[in-house]
């Protein structure tokens, strides 16, 4: 993974492969112009005047991006793409082509080019195309990395990098494998409880069986009871036909009882009985029906407190709580914020039919500093909104609902938090961001490195580079202190 780009936003060229561009262009004026302009923007640029020279350079160096003219004096651009892919499968190629050659450009896309730009082009357009290309590559890498990390045992759709998240996955896997043992998932609204419940089902031996959900707070008591247990014909005025309940429909699978804390006192003992015996009667029925159902329940309520106050039966609580999972709020697993933000942004961009926008470094700081009372659901909404409002392929603070009111990180003044990156040098932005993340992580370098998406060693190097030298910070393994200027 190109970790460095995660901390400062892809729009700022970084050291390493994601910073390197090869231009293959025979028109000398254009070649030299591009070389000069892109170098000034901070990219490391090399150039070749023909296809074969370009291929030779690409063999020597792995470039982050290749800008390729399709009409070259020696070999056709399409052939350059084909040969390139022989030794570098995931080479990112953007073709440059004159207007009448659009069809060739399309052929280039089919041959594996990432995108094309028509000549003559506006340099700003080229610049944003380059930024998007790098961002796409970054996302692809992250997906690959996550797959590799998970060793193929990834839980579908669940994103997260924090130690708390990994622990959560581990518990989920263990409970999924524990036969018909009931599970109780506790956590604030929007933390992903339903997602975890679904994972318990899909990772369990009953994954091929039905997954049935019942929201205990959505229906009045009578209706909820008939939904759960079903009814016989004539059981009540409107019961013109017998109807199976969700318990029967979930036979052989999992029944998810969402908001179980809202289950009425009258229904609680009825649920307890099914949990204990796996048998029940339909409303108005006399026949005992036996099912094989695994119960997974969730609530955002403080169930132990409800048990103490008499609002929830103790025996039912203990029965459900055999497999117990506590989902931490997002603010307690900061390392998940950026991977989730990128994920939701990518999803939204896909949905909107646009390339995934880059995230400005200031935006990342704000996302990390915000407390997320609505948890992951709120983050998803914020990123979807930002994707819609994004201009020039970059998400800026203006697109955050809390962008105008600075949300400073702990221990940081609002004035510093509001300082715009636009007037700062690249090094100053990076230094400030590292400082914020370190503060956010209470000086813990391992955690800070995790949030920044870099190794601890890289973080140490940067601390030295920016003269943020180890001291005796609170909560730090070996402490850090910014050197006073
Ligand atoms: N780890 C995750 N990775 C990706 N998306 C997630 C993750 N956790 C939650 N989400 C997404 O966040 C949103 C909220 O999750 P979910 O509905 O599971 O939360 P919840 O805790 O059940 O909320 P509530 O208590 O309000 O019912 C959903 O869109 C879900 O897909």
From TrEMBL:
Residues 158-388 form the Sigma-54 factor interaction domain. Keywords: ATP-binding, DNA-binding, Nucleotide-binding, Phosphoprotein, Transcription, Transcription regulation. The modification 4-aspartylphosphate is found at residue 69. Residues 20-134 form the Response regulatory domain. InterPro entries: AAA+_ATPase, AAA_lid_NorR, CheY-like_superfamily, Homeodomain-like_sf, HTH_Fis, P-loop_NTPase, Sig_transdc_resp-reg_receiver, Sigma_54_int. Pfam families: AAA_lid_14, HTH_8, Response_reg, Sigma54_activat. The keyword Transcription applies. This is Response regulator. The lineage of its organism: Bacteria, Pseudomonadati, Pseudomonadota, Betaproteobacteria, Rhodocyclales.
């Amino acid at each position: 993974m190109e970790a460095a780009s995660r901390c400062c936003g892809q729009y700022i060229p970084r050291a390493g492969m994601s910073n390197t561009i090869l231009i293959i262009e025979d028109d000398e004026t254009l070649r030299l112009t591009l070389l000069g302009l892109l170098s000034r923007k901070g990219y490391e640029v090399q150039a070749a005047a023909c296809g074969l020279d370009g291929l030779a350079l690409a063999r020597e160096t792995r470039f982050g991006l290749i800008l390729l003219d399709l009409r070259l004096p020696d070999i056709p651009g399409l052939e350059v793409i084909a040969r390139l892919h022989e030794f570098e499968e995931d080479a990112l190629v953007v073709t440059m082509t004159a207007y009448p050659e659009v069809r060739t450009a399309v052929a280039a896309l089919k041959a594996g080019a990432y995108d094309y730009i028509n000549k003559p082009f506006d340099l700003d357009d080229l610049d944003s195309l380059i930024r998007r290309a790098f961002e796409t590559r970054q996302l692809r890498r992250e997906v690959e990395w996550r797959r590799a990390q998970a060793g193929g045992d990834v839980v579908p759709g669940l994103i997260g990098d924090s130690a708390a998240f990994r622990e959560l996955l581990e518990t989920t896997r263990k409970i999924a494998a524990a036969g018909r043992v009931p599970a109780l998932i506790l956590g604030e609204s929007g933390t992903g409880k339903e997602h975890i419940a679904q994972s318990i089902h899909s990772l369990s031996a009953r994954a091929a069986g039905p997954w049935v959900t019942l929201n205990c707070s959505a229906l009045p008591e009578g209706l909820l009871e008939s939904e759960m247990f079903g009814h016989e014909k004539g059981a009540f005025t409107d019961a013109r036909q017998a109807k199976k309940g969700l318990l029967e429909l979930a036979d052989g699978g999992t029944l998810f009882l969402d908001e179980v804390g809202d289950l009425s006192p009258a229904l609680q003992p009825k649920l307890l009985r099914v949990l204990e015996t796996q048998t029940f009667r339909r409303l108005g029925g006399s026949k005992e029906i036996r099912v094989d159902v695994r119960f997974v329940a969730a609530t955002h309520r403080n169930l132990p407190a409800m048990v103490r106050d008499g609002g929830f039966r103790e025996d039912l609580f203990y029965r459900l709580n055999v497999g117990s999972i506590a989902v931490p709020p997002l603010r307690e697993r900061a390392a998940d914020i950026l991977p989730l933000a990128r994920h939701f942004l990518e999803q939204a961009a896909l949905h909107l039919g646009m390339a995934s926008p880059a995230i400005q470094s200031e935006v990342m700081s704000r996302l990390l500093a915000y407390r997320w009372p609505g948890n992951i659901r709120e983050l998803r909404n914020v990123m979807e909104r930002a994707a819609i409002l994004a201009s020039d392929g970059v998400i800026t603070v203006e697109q955050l609902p809390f962008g105008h009111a600075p949300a400073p990180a702990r221990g940081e003044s609002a004035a510093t938090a509001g300082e715009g990156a636009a007037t700062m040098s690249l090094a100053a932005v990076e230094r400030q961001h590292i400082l914020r993340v370190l503060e956010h992580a209470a000086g813990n370098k391992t955690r800070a490195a995790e949030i920044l998406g870099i190794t601890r060693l890289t973080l140490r190097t940067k601390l030295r580079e920016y003269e943020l030298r180890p001291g005796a910070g609170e909560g730090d393994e070996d402490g850090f202190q910014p050197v006073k200027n």
